[in-house]
UniProtKB/TrEMBL annotation, chain A:
Belongs to the UbiA prenyltransferase family. One of its GO terms (molecular function) is protoheme IX farnesyltransferase activity. This is Protoheme IX farnesyltransferase, mitochondrial. Gene3D superfamilies: UbiA prenyltransferase. It comes from the Eukaryota. The gene is Cox10. One of its GO terms (cellular component) is mitochondrial membrane.
UniProtKB/TrEMBL annotation, chain B:
The keyword Membrane applies. Keywords: Membrane, Mitochondrion, Mitochondrion inner membrane, Transit peptide. Its main location: mitochondrion. GO terms for biological process: intrinsic apoptotic signaling pathway. InterPro entries: COA8. It is a peripheral membrane protein. This is APOP1 protein. The gene is Apopt1. The lineage of its organism: Eukaryota, Metazoa, Chordata, Craniata, Vertebrata.
Length: 454, 147
């Protein structure tokens, strides 16, 4: 795989996906559930490599999560949040990066493994050697002194920077889909504010979950678990990211976006994180957490909560379920031991049903988009194949309920969201078109800068 | 950790609890506040260690028992011909995971409450200590400037 990565010619998107999917089969991973996430992260890394936007940190959950996503968009299972987020960009002025807020676990499930470990694991064919070196490092007693040159790396891991980047991407997708002329400053402020809010939420999530993270394979290399940073510093960092972030959104963009950002932080840290250990309802709360960033992007652009914003949020909400449920299927042992109440452990049948239900909901939501005048009618038609494919995998997961079907569904969800958002953007109903039809107030046409993809 | 060190040292994860033990540095002129912080951290560490060591041990034990009983029901031995430990597949283990989670639910709720209490108290004390230290440093700076 490293060889393939080395010769990295520019590939057509389709080719990229095919390569990636093929690679999934090639790599023989020993049958360990915990490796699922490592593999998933690995996939994410190689996939991300093809992104135009260079991400500094390659690891999540992320999770989700690794998990993401958590939370801030750490929704489903901690790894979820930390779960892999797939990033995709188009080389246009306006980039679209679908993001799957990893929910925690995934949030957590968002699990983001240690940057170094992931990099080394990704770099070498044989993952045993890096793991060996890493564990040797681990065996030593370390001084609990903060080194300033380590700080950026530590803070990046604390804020689950990869997950945050994906959250920013979903928010910018929401911004892009809003039927208003594109304003660069507003876009940048919204993205920055969202990113800061996400960093804050992720840091607080990690602050709350130290002993649990140390007991789960996906998350045991986080900065607070390893004592690289004190809890006080983590909280201060979260405050210094969150407060400016929300203030920026409220004053620099609009109060509605700021309120949504603050609400999302609250939802993630005070509802999702404690709920993970109390009831399976955390998955639904986490899905809302993941759905809010695109809504924020939309309200940043238009200043109001329209049906379009809710639709975009709805698409991301529905997407979280196949993504997270499939991922959590492989992490049942860790969740059970760690005391996390996840559907995959306590209500496995429900877990699969919900995943399938929401795959089908995606088809329905895609059909609603042109009705709401967000996209043209080509969108449901073009997106039908990928929606049908993920529904098919969801059905297979529902029927077979085994590791391979859950993995297939999970990996599909990783590329499905970027593709869907991309297709949505290309099918976006042009502002100028609307003007011709006299839908828009007259004053807009001088300033209309509609970004259209070739 | 070396004797001359002035900071805390954190070690590798414990075998049973997966938590990393910390050896706290006791400065010679430790204030009452700093002592309270250190003791809070030590107490939290001890309590966490106790909980997780016991919990993980119980998990491993119950898992073994579960595998043993299921294998017996199927008529198999714990180790097959090649001497490898026989395991159940994921779907069979799922019953055990579900069971274990629900059995320990109350225990986890209680632990969560305790952990959040510890965590907030420690962080708050850290904040107080940091504030006191910062003020002391500022006062010293002012004194140096005045001299």
């Amino acid at each position: 795989m490293s060889a393939a990565r080395r010769c990295r010619p520019p590939r057509a998107l389709a080719g990229l996906f095919v390569w990636r999917l093929r690679n999934t089969g090639v790599r023989q991973i020993p049958c360990r559930f915990v490796h699922l996430y490592h593999v998933a992260n690995d996939r994410l890394i190689t996939f991300q490599y093809f992104n135009f936007l260079k991400r500094m940190y390659v690891t999540w959950c992320n999770k989700d999560l690794s998990q993401r996503a958590k939370p801030k968009s750490d929704s489903i299972v901690s790894p979820f949040h930390e779960l892999q987020q797939l990033d995709q960009e188009k080389k246009v002025v306006h980039k679209i990066s679908p993001v799957s807020p990893v929910q925690q676990s995934l949030s957590e499930t968002s699990s983001r493994n240690e940057l170094r470990e992931m990099k080394s694991a990704a770099e070498t064919e044989d993952s045993v050697i890096p793991v060996g070196a890493e564990s040797k490092e681990d065996r030593r007693w370390k001084e609990m002194k903060l080194r300033l040159d380590d700080l950026p790396g530590i803070l990046a891991r604390l804020s689950k920077i990869k997950l945050t980047a994906l959250v920013i991407s979903t928010a910018s997708a929401g911004f892009a889909m809003a039927p208003v002329p594109f304003e660069l400053t507003c876009f940048l402020l919204a993205s920055l504010g969202t990113g800061l809010a996400s960093c804050a939420a992720n840091s607080i999530n990690q602050f709350f979950e130290v002993p649990f993270d140390s007991n789960m394979n996906r998350t045991k290399n986080r900065p607070l678990v390893r004592g690289q940073i004190s809890p006080l510093l983590a909280v201060c960092f979260a405050a210094s990211c969150g407060i400016p972030g929300i203030v920026l959104l409220t004053l620099g963009v609009n109060p509605l976006t700021g309120a949504l950002g603050a609400f999302n932080i609250f939802l993630y840290t005070c509802c999702y994180t404690p709920l993970k250990r109390m009831s399976i309802a955390n998955t639904w709360v986490g899905a809302v957490v993941g759905a809010i960033p695109p809504v924020m992007g939309w309200t940043a652009a238009t200043g109001s909560l329209d049906a379009g914003a809710l639709l975009l949020g709805g698409i991301l909400y529905s997407w979280q379920f196949p993504h997270f449920n499939a991922l959590s299927w492989g992490l049942r042992e860790d969740y059970s031991r760690g005391g996390y109440c996840m559907m995959s452990v306590t209500h496995p049948g429900l877990c699969r049903r919900v995943a399938l239900r929401h795959c089908l909901a995606l088809i329905g939501l895609s059909t609603v988009a042109p009705v709401l005048d967000i996209t043209t009618w080509t969108f449901p038609i073009i997106s039908l194949p990928i929606n049908l494919y993920i529904s098919y995998l969801g059905f297979r997961f529902y029927r077979d309920a085994d590791r391979s079907s859950s993995r297939k569904l999970f990996f599909c969800s990783l590329w499905h969201l970027p593709m869907l958002l991309l297709v949505m953007f290309t099918c976006k109903k042009s502002v100028l078109e609307k003007e011709d039809k006299g839908d828009l107030p007259g004053g807009a046409h001088e300033t209309a800068m509609e970004i259209r993809l070739p | 950790p070396p004797a001359h060190s002035h900071s805390d040292w954190i070690g590798p994860p414990d075998k049973h609890s997966n938590l990393r033990p910390i050896i706290f540095y006791v400065p010679p002129e430790e204030s009452a506040l700093e002592r309270r912080l250190r003791e809070a951290r030590q107490e939290a560490q001890a309590s966490n260690q106790r909980f997780w060591a016991r919990h993980n041990r119980a998990f491993r034990q119950e898992k073994e028992e579960f595998i043993y009983s299921r294998l017996k029901a199927k008529g198999l031995e714990m180790r097959d011909e090649s001497g490898q430990k026989a395991t159940l597949n994921a779907e069979e283990m799922a019953d055990f995971y579900k069971d274990f989670l629900s059995k320990n639910f109350k225990k986890h709720l209680q632990y969560n409450r305790d952990w959040y209490k510890h965590n907030f108290r420690i962080t708050f004390l850290m904040g107080q200590v940091a504030l006191v230290r910062a003020l002391r440093w500022l006062r010293r700076r002012k004194k140096n400037v005045e001299q």
